[in-house]
Design goal:
- By secondary structure, this protein is mainly beta.
- It has a single domain, classed as SET domain (Beta-clip-like), CATH 2.170.270.10.
- Helices cover 5% and strands 37% of the residues.
- The strands form 3 sheets. A 4-stranded antiparallel β-sheet has the order 4-3-7-6. A two-stranded antiparallel sheet has the order 1-2. A two-stranded parallel sheet has the order 5-8.
- The chain is globular, with a radius of gyration of 14 Å.
- The chain starts with 12 loop residues before the first strand and ends in a 10-residue tail after the last strand.
Length: 106
């Protein structure tokens, strides 16, 4: 039996330098529309205390044309998953529109 190892990102995503800000999450392979990219955020105390997973911590903001959105789990509403909203090509950065704050106002 092969031992499972923890992977903070799916094997089709990586972290590298971003043109948006610092580091970002990028597709290594094409990603289909409506793909669950993984757990990105956890609410510990609504609405102000968000914990970001490695995936959520490196997804950059795009207020105009994001390629993902956060979706709250129906069974466990304190969990949020990043879901692609269109086909994402290999090499593209994974982006969300941040809704809890506006990074341009920092």
């Amino acid at each position: 039996m092969q031992k499972e190892t923890y992977k903070p990102l799916p094997n089709y995503l990586t972290i590298k330098k971003s043109k948006i800000d610092g580091l970002g999450v990028f597709a290594i392979k094409d990603v289909a529309n409506k793909t669950n990219l993984g757990l990105s955020h956890i609410i510990l105390q609504s609405p102000s205390l968000f914990i970001r997973t490695p995936l959520g911590g490196f997804i950059n903001h795009d207020g105009k044309k994001p390629n993902c959105k956060l979706v709250r789990d129906k069974t466990f509403p304190h969990l949020f998953f990043a879901i692609s909203t269109r086909h994402i090509k290999a090499g593209e950065e994974i982006t969300l529109t941040y809704t809890s704050y506006n990074p341009e106002e920092e």
